[in-house]
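Thread: quick sanity check before group meeting

JM: Hey all, I'm pulling together slides for Thursday and realized we never actually wrote out the predicted structure for the chain we discussed last week. Dropping the sequence here so it's in one place. If anyone has concerns about the input, flag it before I start.
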Amino acid sequence: MIILGSQSPRRIELLKSITSDFIIMKPLFDEKTISEKAEHYSLLEAENKAISLKNLTKPEDFLICCDTSVVYEDIIFGKPSDENDAKKTLRFLSNKTHKVITGYVILHDGKMTKGEVISYVTFEDLTDEKIDEYVSKCYVLDKAGSYGVQYNDIVRVVKKIDGSLTNVIGFPVDEIKEDLIKLKAI
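JM (edit): ok, ran it. Output follows.
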């Protein structure tokens, strides 16, 4: 059985593009316990999410857990604490290129298959008015970096993406599908 260790609607939809035969479990790991300065932060988060569910799954299951972070130089932008924090982050990222890193783990038969995918996102030059409009029209409080590329048709903040769009959304479909095929899960 394939198990998605996430309740993210975006990750659920993207996994459906690979298979419809899976169940969902909510990770039991508190994301605030790892320092955001840790190298491979997203991969560590994904590993800990998988470990938190290990005893609730069977060895023959394929448990997939992901974590996505937005990184500019050495600053990691997680989920904003409130709308003002979101606006501050968007203001900072305005007219800059940053990395979106998704770490993922597939736990099967006591072994972890791990991966990290990096995409580069360039923001538009955002005015305060555009930032206010974005935060008022788009739900950003559960998004690393305070934005979701899927909202770009509502208020355009993303100018360009170099790399995987599905990675920027939080679930690198091609890489995870390739690993699931190698593991004979699909």
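AS: nice. The chain has one domain: 2-182. The first strand starts at residue 2 and ends at 4.
JM: adding both to the slides.
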